[in-house]
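Today's session is about reading a structure prediction critically. Students often jump straight to the picture, but the first step is always the sequence itself: look for stretches that repeat, for charged clusters, for runs of hydrophobic residues. Only then move on to the predicted structure, which in these notes is written as discrete structure tokens rather than atom positions. Here is the chain we will use throughout the hour.
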Amino acid sequence: MLPLAQTCGELGDWFESSLGQEILTQQLALAQPLVEGLFGYHLMQASVARQVDFAACSRINHRFQLSPCAERGGAALVEFEQLPLPSESIDVAVLHHMLDFSPQPHQVLREAARVLIPGGHMVLIGFNPFSLLGLSRIFLSSSPYQKGNQLRAARVADWMNLLDMQAGPVERGFFRLPLQHADLLAKTAWMERMGTRWHLPWGGFYIIVARKEVARMRAIKLNWHGDKKPALSPVPSSPRVAARGRHHNKR
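Below is the predicted structure for this chain, in token form.
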């Protein structure tokens, strides 16, 4: 897989297409209320799409964007495999398809977990390979969004667990056919309503909100009132002390 810096341009163009805009609209509608309910002092977000802001409704004052692509305006250009941020410095991290298109998705997740404070939250958005959108890569492999890692939500949650992060319930969206025509997409709105109502597992994308666990100290509890009590025995005296005692008795 090519480095993310070389593919984010094509991905940005795809998200501006009819299909990409429809998916992005649904992602914003689902993710923004989740981000709004998270609190802290510093919020970091990263996306492969242009001019998208998942934290516009956030109450966190210090919000900034990072990007692997130089053409992303208003965002700092970084390598996500090695974030230039100190450990445990971010309260909320939003990753928009960063794992899907990185050659080292596990390292990207590890770095994002590293910069989160204990008790901080990560909002991760990814494509679902077991969906109509994911299965379409068999027929249209030339589209940029179909060249990703295709990571399952359960697999990502397992990676989070290894990094001491507890993943919450998974949100899913876009249950329609992956069509590049706005009129045809509008005619399949009934599929969206059905998938949302019945919480079907084959949504085109998923959103995971995970919380970084706080390191806990294990307390050792002593049983001071147990039945067994330590046996008391006289402390043996040294030969010099014993001889001095005998000499004193003879007096």
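Discussion point for the tutorial: The CA atoms of residues 235 and 242 lie 12 Å apart.
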